[in-house]
Amino acid sequence: VQLQASGGGLVQPGGSLRLSCAVSGSDSGSINTWAWYRQAPGKERTRVAQIAKSGDTNIAEAVQGRFAISRDIFNANVYLEMNNLQSEDTAIYYCSAATWTRFWGQGTQVTVSS
After folding, report:
1. Which pairs with CB-CB distance under 8 Å and at least 24 residues apart come from 106-109?
2. Where is mean pLDDT largest: 36-40, 75-79, 97-101?
3. What phi and psi values does residue 101 have, to the nearest 5 degrees?
4. How far apart are CA 83 and CA 41, in angstroms?
5. Which pLDDT value is given to residue 29?
6. C-alpha triplet 67, 72, 75: angle, nearest 5°
7. Which among 83, 95, 5 is positioned nearest to 45, based on CA atoms?
8. What is the pLDDT of residues 41-63, one digit of tens each?
């Protein structure tokens, strides 16, 4: 499974960004869950949002009501819609997918600053 994240950038507080993750590879049909994680400088990597093959989603409490995860019908792209961004959302965001193991994309930087 290969994962390619994109869409990060610099945004002002209160702004929005949409991250995309292109999913490919011969084992991509075996993916059970897709997720977005983030890691701020000096902090551990934490899960932000997850979507299961069933379509069920789980959003971290810190971003509930502001972030949403979705995927296209072919499961070839997974998205993270981020609204009302705040400085504490500044981090490298990683897309991830799990089969019998977990795969990671390369990360995309999100910086929230005025």
Report:
1. 106/3, 106/4, 106/5, 107/5, 107/39, 108/5, 108/6, 108/7, 108/8, 108/19, 109/8, 109/9
2. 36-40
3. -145, 175
4. 21
5. 84
6. 110
7. 95
8. 999 999 999 999 999 999 999 99
